[in-house]
Amino acid sequence: MKKKFIIFYLIIILIVTIGLSQSLVDIAKRERERRKKIKKKVPVITNETVGKIKKGKGYGFIIGKSSGDGSFSNSEYSEIPEKQKYEEWGKKYKRLMAEIKAAEELFRKEKKELDDLIFRFKITNNPNEKFALPHEISKKEKEVAKLNERVKKLKKDLENFKERARREAIPPGYLR
Questions:
Q1: Higher-confidence position of 15 and 140
Q2: Distances from the Cα of 46 to the Cαs of 7, 50, 150, in angstroms?
C-alpha cells in the first residue's frame, strides 16, 4: 500500500516537473528580448579598453592607464573624484542618525513620565489628584504619540536616505 502511494507521488512529481520545465531555447529568446529593450548601452571594460575610458564616468575608483600588455598601472593615480560628495553623504547620514537618537531619547523620557503619571493615578488616594491626573495623562499620551510618529518618520527617512545613497553609488563605508 505504501509503495503504491510513493510510486503515485513520484509519477505526479515527474509529470509536473516535465510539464513546467522550460527549454533552454525559450530562456535564450527571452534574454535576447530583454537585452533589446535596454535603452542605455553599457560599455564593456576589457584590458584593451581600460586606458581609453574617460575620467569621472564612474567606472571605478582608481584611475590609471593601461600599459598595453593587458596590465593596469596606477602610477598616475588620481584622487577619487567624488570623495567630497561621499563625505557629504556621510555627514548627512551622521546628522540624521543623531536626530533619530535624540528623538528616541526624548520619546523614552516622555514615555517614562507618562508611566509615572499612570502609576501615580493608580496609587493615589487624594480625590483632587484623581480628578486632575487623567487630564495630564491624556496630554502626555498625545505628546508620546506625536514623538512615536516622529521617530517612525525619521526611521523611514533613514531608509529612504540609504536607498538614495545606494542609487547615487555611495559606498556603504561612508554611511557608518
A1: 140
A2: 54, 6, 49
